[in-house]
Specification:
Layout lengths: L2 H28 L1 H15 L5 H12 L5 H22 L2 H6 L3 E4 L1 H10 L4 E4 L6 H9 L4 E5 L5 H12 L6 E3 L2 H12 L3 E5 L9 E4 L2 E4 L3 H9 L3 E9 L3 E6 L11 H22 L13 H5 L11
Parallel strand pairs: 1-9, 2-5, 2-8, 3-4, 3-5
Antiparallel strand pairs: 6-7, 8-9
Length: about 300
């Protein structure tokens, strides 16, 4: 990139950062409940008009083929509101935490992990507001590497990191080769790691998710087996009044049989089954906007018949 190109890109980034800072400032001025409501209203209004609505409806058809079209459309609309609320709430997460809006079931498990000094691999999916998981883990005193995908705009990324630091999330492991090394070094020091496990993954063991094949990330199981750690599932659901119920489930212990590939595959299957169970329990809380299944599964669906996608 030429000097002029670099200057132009930097200017664009700085302007974007000003806009992002303005958004965060507005959300904090509004407060937790009004910020959440505004974010929910915006995406409930705009989300169905985007091309991503097609992905949402196709995902719902794959997961719930026997659900009536009208019910799927209502669920699609409700999940847009959830997504908008979660995005806006990120700007006020520190206030949300201070106002004690997160109910934790199984908090004693986090305290036991903290007191043991031994690392675990936290696993979960994109439900309700995933930042409640990071805030709860670090708030319980468990040293943990929280993975994240850095924003392309470095000035926006700095603001995101600063916002997360306000509610205790200070350990970051960027994804990629450097991130993998950081995770390994962290676990060797006794720090836990937290990974989301419900995104599309082009490689890894093939498992079944809602009756269809998917490839799922083997990383969590590999880490657990390497360090003799357990997989610690966590999930969260949204409650009325911008409140959340976060559950720390029974840990998943992986057995070393001598067949490493098979051991990893069993871990991947267990995590994927856990995610599916949580989606079935509360479908509206899941992040339906990403393409979770392989292209061939979407191709087999045929044309959408839902009226909202016509």
């Amino acid at each position: 990139m030429t000097g002029t190109g670099k200057f132009r890109q930097d200017l664009i980034w700085r302007l974007e950062a000003v806009g992002f800072a303005g958004f965060i400032g507005l959300m904090r001025l509004l407060g937790v409940e009004r910020a959440s409501a505004l974010g929910g209203w915006l995406l409930r209004t705009l989300g169905p008009r985007t091309g991503t609505q097609r992905t949402v409806l196709r995902n719902l058809r794959i997961a719930f083929p026997d659900m009536a079209a009208a019910e799927r459309e209502a669920l699609a609309l409700a999940q847009w509101e959830q997504t908008g609320r979660a995005f806006a709430e990120t700007a006020v997460m520190d206030l949300l935490v201070k106002q004690d809006r997160i109910e934790v079931v199984g908090l004693e498990r986090l305290h036991a992990i903290r007191d043991s000094g031994k690392p675990v691999v936290f696993v979960g999916g994109h439900f309700a507001n995933i930042e409640t998981l990071a805030a709860t883990i670090t708030g319980s005193g468990v040293p943990c590497q929280i993975t994240y995908r850095a924003a392309n705009n470095p000035y926006v990324d700095a603001q995101i990191r600063a916002a997360r630091a306000r509610y205790g999330v200070r350990l970051f492991a960027p994804k990629g080769g450097d991130g993998a090394r950081e995770l390994l070094a962290g676990m060797a020091r006794g720090e836990s790691v937290a990974l989301m496990n419900d995104q599309k993954f082009s490689e890894g063991p093939e498992v079944t998710f809602f009756g269809q094949p998917v490839n799922a990330a083997p990383g969590p199981s590999r880490l657990a087996l390497r360090f003799g750690a357990v997989l610690q599932p966590m999930s969260v659901v949204r409650l009325p009044g911008v409140r959340f119920r976060l559950t720390v489930y029974e840990p998943i212990e992986l057995e070393k049989t001598g067949d490493r590939s098979a051991d990893i595959a069993r871990g991947v299957e267990a995590i994927t089954g856990f995610i599916e169970d949580r989606v079935r329990e509360s479908p509206v809380d899941w992040f339906w906007v990403h393409k979770r299944w392989p292209d061939r599964v979407y191709a087999a669906l045929g044309p959408l018949r839902d009226s909202s996608a016509a």
